[in-house]
Design brief:
single chain, Immunoglobulin-like, Glutaredoxin, 3 domains, five-stranded mixed sheet, 23% strand, globular
Length: 395
């Protein structure tokens, strides 16, 4: 009799478990619905959903416009993903971690009086995404770091301005003079303490999540770019973390497949006048062509332009050409930079796809190709570029 009762109870428990699983599956959404309400911005403002945390210039996966201050997006995700909700011509953004659930975002947009009319946001509230809540909790330490950064910079404004001017003008004597002052020594010590703490905190955050996709995700958000020095951090991840969406992105950046030996001449992009130019037509008739990815806002890129001009002046009549490709999001900023820099070689505007094909993660990024459009070297700048060209052109 007891066996019968136990069997009946066991059957009941099985039925209860099955019922609970069925209810759980019903409650678990298979897609996301994102609803936004933004005050302070005019109707018709373009709103784009752009993937973030990829270290790449990603095209929008969806686009709409504000109507009565509202916008919405919907879709399906295999796992939570980080996005930027971009407003206007990439003039402002709200970060959000999307997952398959009903998510709402409210905020007030503030348009600045600056030339580009950048948009800031106040009173941002994201509801309905557990992943976003977790992301916010795990990265709350950034508020403390930001305060510490502001604190040790207080009272150093004049010194920082003088340093910037000395570096911009290349005045080494002035730079050395400033760096010998007691004020700079104190500042330097505080800065080292700050960055040591920031690096330690970031590594702890990543290591804490080494067994799931959050680990590689935080690598992408905590580091502006990745180098071979970060490989030991990635190597400690679980297999599940390494093979996740963000894990694959990190692996590709840390262990990149070289484009050397690859033909890259099949792309075409628009120039400043909106005319489509084919790379193969520019390459045709030249011996060696440097494809240079840059942006108006990239200080190292702008600093490299005089070196490019010198190489162009020296080798352009011997079969050397340059194709500069801007990854600027703001096309007007690109046009302004072109006028300032006066680069006399072909300048093209990236469509978001070409830079991705070249696996551009950080700029400046350069690829030297031969007359057939095959990459023969990469990341050549300054003296290294000149030495390579001199050797190839036997000068």
């Amino acid at each position: 009799m007891r066996n019968v009762i136990n069997n009946v109870l066991g059957l009941c428990l099985i039925l209860v478990v099955i019922s609970c699983k069925q209810e759980a599956n019903k409650s678990k959404k298979e897609s996301y619905q994102l609803e936004g309400q933004i005050a302070g911005l005019v109707d018709g403002t373009v709103v784009k959903l752009v993937p973030g945390a990829t270290h790449s210039s990603e095209p929008a996966v969806a686009e709409t416009v504000l109507k009565d201050g509202k916008f919405s997006f919907s879709g399906k995700l295999e796992e939570p993903r980080f996005f930027y909700i971009m407003f206007g011509n990439y003039r402002g953004a709200i970060p959000v971690m999307l997952e398959n659930s009903n998510i709402t975002i409210t905020a007030t947009g503030i348009v600045s009086d600056a030339e580009n009319g950048s948009i800031g946001f106040e009173d941002e509230v994201v509801e309905g995404s557990e992943s976003h809540n977790y992301y916010a909790k795990e990265t709350a330490f950034k508020d403390e770091l930001n305060k510490e950064y502001e604190d040790y910079h207080k009272g150093t404004e004049e010194m920082s301005k003088a340093l910037g001017q000395a570096r911009a003008s290349g005045d080494k004597d002035r730079l050395d003079s400033i760096e010998r002052t007691p004020e700079y020594k104190i500042f330097e010590k505080k800065e080292k303490t700050f960055f040591d703490k920031a690096e330690r905190t970031s590594k702890n955050l990543i290591t804490k999540h080494k067994d799931n996709w959050w680990g590689p995700f935080f690598m992408l958000t905590q580091y502006t770019y990745l180098t071979p020095e970060e490989r030991p951090i990635f190597d400690q991840f679980s297999e599940a973390a390494k093979t996740s969406y963000y894990g694959r992105i990190v692996k590709e950046e840390l262990y990149p497949k070289t484009l050397i030996g690859t033909n890259v001449a099949s792309f075409s992009l628009n120039d400043k006048d909106g005319k489509s130019l084919k790379a193969k037509d520019i390459i045709s008739g030249n011996k060696y062509i440097l494809i240079d990815f840059w942006a108006s806002w990239c200080a190292p890129c702008r600093k490299e332009i005089p070196n490019l001009k010198e190489a162009y002046k020296k080798y352009s009549n011997k079969g050397f050409e340059i194709i500069s490709v801007s990854i600027d999001k703001d096309e007007e900023a690109w046009h302004k930079a072109l006028k300032q820099e006066n680069m006399t070689w072909p300048n093209l505007y990236d469509d978001g796809k070409v830079s991705k094909t070249f696996k551009v993660k950080a700029i400046p990024a350069t690829f030297l190709v031969d007359e057939n459009g095959v990459v023969i070297a990469d990341n050549l700048r300054g003296e290294a570029l000149e030495e390579k060209l001199a050797k190839l052109l036997k000068l």
